[in-house]
Design a protein that fits this description.
111 residues; alpha+beta; 5 helices; 39% helix
Amino acid sequence: TLEKQSGIILDEITTQQQQQSSSSSSSSLFRGDSSWQSNVMGGGWSAFRLQRLGEWNARNCASFPQTYKLLQSLDIPFAVRGVCFARQEPNSGVQPHSDGRNFILTRKDVG
């Protein structure tokens, strides 16, 4: 199950973050969808997408090969909006919103 193999995902995201912090590049792993995410969710949100609207991002998935392989092995539907690593700045909150695709709500979304 995903929970039992969550260490794979944690290892890959930790490795990516460490590589980013030791790199002289000003690019951020989470920069790609940040403006869109903040417009919908409120300031302080950013995301790194592996899948968006049903399409896997080959370049992003190549940065997380084991996570991608794990996700592909699961017999589950993915959210309509996609699969991403998201982060939120402290004290930023979540503004009331709808992205027009909230067909599948999780307990966290409604609770």
